[in-house]
Amino acid sequence: MDxxxxxxxxxxxxxxxxxxxxxxxxxxxxxVARADxxxxxxxxxxxxQVGGRGKAGGIQLAxxxxxxxxSSRSMLHRPLKGHVVRRVWVEEASAPKLExxxxxxFDRAAKLHLIMVSARGGIDIEExxxxxxGAIARLHVDPLDGLDGASVVDLVERAGLDPSLTDQVAAVIxxxxxxxxxxxxxxxxxxxxxxxxxxxxMALDAKVSLDDSAAFRHPxxxxxxxNEALDERERRARxxxxxxxxxxxxxxxxxxxxxxxxSTLDVVNQVGGTAANFLDIGGGAGADIVAAALEVVNxxxxxxxxxxxxxxxxxxxxxxxxxxxxxxxxxxLRSPIIVRLDGTNAxxxxxxxxxxxxxxxxxxxxxxxxxxxxxxxxxxSAR
Length: 383
Ligand code: GDP
Ligand code: MN
Hints:
It is a single chain. By secondary structure, this protein is an alpha+beta fold. It has 13 helices and 18 strands. It has helices at 5-14, 28-38, 65-75, 125-131, 149-158, 166-182, 221-227, 232-239, 258-270, 287-298, 317-330, 346-355, 367-377; strands at residues 22-25, 42-46, 59-62, 79-80, 83-84, 88-92, 98-107, 112-118, 136-141, 185-195, 201-203, 207-210, 243-246, 251-255, 277-280, 305-312, 337-343, 361-363. Strands 7, 8, 9, 10, 11 and 12 form a 6-stranded antiparallel β-sheet that branches. Strand 16 (305-312), helix 11 and strand 17 (337-343) form a beta-alpha-beta unit. Helix 5 crosses helix 6. The radius of gyration is 25 Å and the shape is elongated.
């Protein structure tokens, strides 16, 4: 089980590591109320199990209530790097003087635990490893021996941090070790471990994965798990290996390629509609995948029209069209489908669709025309 940031911070705090004071919120109004309690300025952080949120707009500084409201609205119920944001974390803003990196994980190849420390925190450790591997100090730990203080101090000294902070960083690593060992974690990564202006250490981010096979001895995990509960539609899609995110609108959307699906969502919005989901069928678009995608979208009671937007590259338009026709025979859809096919073998594909055209299967030549049609079919007034 992967924890979201605020859950990871709860685990760290329980082991005595300093974290910024913060509160969770599920709506923009709640976020404002929580920010008022925490005190401005705050940082609004999207709670999704993925790194690099900062660059993707998932971390925003707010000096007042209005900015908390707009930041939360820009994050909640929208996909961020392929994960829909259901919750934000509102925490006191900090102005780090330095950003370090610390992690503990299991190195399967070495069959040993691995602790890594770097003075170059705040950016992806993969990036550091690629352009300056010497900037990461490593320590392997035998699970049978455990960790001793002297090795930790040596590790910290090798990492080239501010020498006046050696003891503090070593103490954080020992606390992380107990969170990792006693907490049955498989990974704990603190990036950044911030050095505040007054020289204290604080975990500004926490990425934690727990070992599911140890769940029986951790009743306290139940609460974290409950918060993670997936939407029923997402569960169904995940089961079929589809990349699906449930949203609140009425136009079901199926496309190939994340970029194309995102722009389809935007175009549907632009012409006055609302998307019911994000569903990327990827490169393969045979009848099985198309049928599975249609089934998932069809299981959403809010859907009034299904927009299928395929740009053939490696995926051939004629095969997609055959897939759609075959899928229609297998799945009984509640809503009409509107198809836009372009790219490789699009003409052959459109000819196949034309043969089977009905008021349940419509075809449009462009993304915009298809979006307009879908919005109308869904009962909206397309702009
Ligand atoms: P990630 O991008 O998903 O790993 O999210 P992080 O929580 O690590 O935040 C990314 C970056 O945003 C950090 O390295 C910091 O530079 C910055 N950041 C996060 N929280 C704060 C904060 O409270 N104050 C300031 N000034 N920067 C922050
Ligand atoms: Mn981070």
